[in-house]
From TrEMBL, chain A:
Enzyme Commission (EC) number: 1.14.13.149
Organism taxonomic ancestry: Bacteria, Pseudomonadati, Pseudomonadota, Alphaproteobacteria, Sphingomonadales
SUPFAM superfamilies tied to this protein: Ferritin-like
Any single Gene Ontology cellular-component annotation: cytosol
The protein's name: Ring-1,2-phenylacetyl-CoA epoxidase subunit PaaA
GO molecular function annotations of the record: phenylacetyl-CoA 1,2-epoxidase activity
Keywords recorded for this protein, A-Z: Oxidoreductase
Family annotation (Gene3D superfamilies): 1.20.1260.10
Entry keyword annotation includes Nucleus: no
GO BP of this protein: phenylacetate catabolic process
TrEMBL record, chain B:
NCBIfam families associated with the record: PA_CoA_Oxy2
Stored Pfam families: PaaB
Name of the protein this chain belongs to: Ring-1,2-phenylacetyl-CoA epoxidase subunit PaaB
InterPro entries with a match to the protein in the record: PaaB (IPR009359), PaaB_sf (IPR038693)
Domain of life where this protein originates: Bacteria
Lineage: Bacteria, Pseudomonadati, Pseudomonadota, Alphaproteobacteria, Sphingomonadales
């Protein structure tokens, strides 16, 4: 998921607006308003390119960093079945990252630049992955809530105006449903277990509920770039609309599980036809965006270690290709 | 200059009898690894029975700015379409 606008300075009013050719701009606006897809070689305003590059690369980084909290549990999965499922899910997330990096690259930023920005701590990723996974039920809660929120966000993005991003989202959405279902299934199984196991599920819910709601990003009235993104069909629904949909879909699932939602203000509103819910602690959200999440440092350390420890594989592959190329040249 | 491995476009044949369709792209140092990466990235769920990879740099594409002129003749030659011909009702199924 993880498409939230996190960087509040770049690309907003702070950046000087490029002077665009009014005729080209008008043609572009008309195409987008007409729900046409924009493709890599088409003309596009600089701000559109910049916003998309940021959004898609943040989305890609989130998929990649998202593998880390789940990876922590691979060797501690309670059965071979759960281990195989978790491994497959993590592999999918890696794939999502790759689809998305490819889409972002079509806008003119190299893979290397994006990965360097992530490792240098300059790029953002979803705040959700800066929370720790403390017990096995957290793996279920991530699938159910975090992937559930991701689905809410990604489904409308299948119709986002940038073609490569939309196509990546179609592929991702096909795979996400398994992620959410395996998480819910895991929790259902734990709820059939001992009182201690049920308590673990409730504990995971208590810790993951609010961060999951924050995944949709700041409220609409504090989301400066939202209007432009909606107009350009980069986003199709606002943060608050998506958040409300998520709450409405998830509360009945929590009831079915037999756990409570940690929100005393949560209440069905007959008139609105939606659940009302309590105020979100946005100070916590912005602190996590600034990198003050409980395990932010640990995540980036693990990410850099994975990259550095894999260097020999990349070097070996490059050396092999160089040798093959030399042989081909000698044979020719 | 980027140190990234070259980019390869990936085409997947979903099953026998169908054409290969563009699925996405991967970075790889050579064709063999490009195929392996394509397999891991785009066919984890029986999405295909055959893969093609081709260096992205080798693809020659038409210019979107020229699309109007390039494809216009198709629109102006309506007689290329069967519906252009108004035949008597007595002629069934032609
Ligand atoms: Fe994902
Ligand atoms: Fe997922």
């Amino acid at each position: 998921m993880y498409t939230t606008e996190l960087d509040k300075t770049a690309g907003s009013a702070a950046a000087p607006a490029a002077v665009e050719d009014p005729a080209l701009l008008a043609a572009f606006e008309a195409r987008v308003a007409n729900d046409e897809f924009i493709e890599p070689k088409d003309w596009m305003p600089e701000a559109y390119r910049r916003t998309l590059t940021r959004q898609i690369s943040q989305h890609a980084h989130s998929e990649i960093v998202g593998m880390l909290p789940e990876g922590n549990w691979l060797t501690r999965a309670p059965s071979l079945k759960r281990k195989a499922i978790l491994l497959a899910k993590i592999q999918d997330e890696g794939g999502h990252g790759l689809y998305l990096y490819c889409a972002a690259e079509t806008l003119g930023t190299s893979r290397e630049q994006m990965i360097e920005a992530l490792h240098a701590g300059k790029a953002k990723y979803s705040t959700i992955f800066n929370y720790p996974t403390l017990n096995w039920a957290d793996i279920g809660a991530i699938g159910w809530l975090v992937d559930g929120a991701a689905i809410m966000n990604q489904v409308p993005l299948q119709r986002t105006s940038y073609g490569p991003y939309a196509r990546a989202m179609v592929r991702v959405c096909k795979e996400e449903s398994f992620h959410q279902r395996q998480g819910y299934d895991l929790l259902l199984e734990m709820m059939k277990g001992t009182p201690e196991q049920r308590a673990m599920v409730q504990d995971a819910m208590n810790r993951w509920w609010w961060p999951s709601l924050m995944m949709f990003g700041p409220p609409d009235d504090n989301s400066p770039n939202s209007a432009q993104s909606i107009r350009w069909r980069i986003k199709r629904e606002t943060n608050d609309e998506l958040r409300q949909k998520f709450v409405d879909a998830t509360v009945p699932q929590a009831e079915l599980l037999g756990i409570t939602v940690p929100d005393p203000d949560l209440q069905w509103n007959e008139e609105r036809g939606h659940y009302d819910f309590g105020a979100i602690d946005w100070n916590e959200f912005y602190a996590v965006v600034r990198g003050e999440g409980p395990v932010a440092r640990e995540r980036m350390k693990a990410r850099r270690a994975a990259w550095d420890e894999g260097a020999w594989v990349r070097e070996a592959a490059a050396a092999w290709e160089a040798r093959q190329a030399a042989r081909r040249a000698a044979a020719a | 200059m980027s140190k990234d491995w070259p980019l390869w476009e990936v085409f997947v044949r979903a099953r026998g009898g169908l054409e290969h369709r563009h699925a996405g792209s991967v970075h790889a140092p050579d064709a063999e690894l490009a195929l392996r990466h394509a397999r891991d990235t785009y066919t984890r769920r029986m999405e295909g029975v055959s893969l093609w990879v081709v260096r992205s740099a080798d693809i020659v594409a038409s210019d979107p700015d020229q699309a109007g002129e390039l494809f216009e003749p198709a629109a102006s030659k309506v007689y290329r379409h069967p519906t252009f011909y108004d035949l008597p009702d007595a002629v069934k199924h032609m």
